[in-house]
Amino acid sequence: MSTLPAAGPHANSATPKRRRSADPVGILSFIALVVTTFLMLLPLFFMVSTSLKSKKEMLKFPPTFLPESWQWSNYKEIFETLPFGTMYMNSLIIGVLTVIGTLLSSALAAYGFARYRGKGSNTWFLLMLSTMMLPYPAIMIPQFILFSKLNWIDTFLPLIVPAFFGSAYNIFLLRQFFSTLPEELFDAGRIDGCSEFRMWRQIALPLSGPALATVAIFAFIYSWNDLLTPVLYLSSTEKFTLPVGMSSLTSSRFRIPPWHLLMVASVLAMLPIVTLFAVAQKRFVEGIVLTGIK
Question: What is the average pLDDT across 202-226?
Answer without folding.
Answer: 88
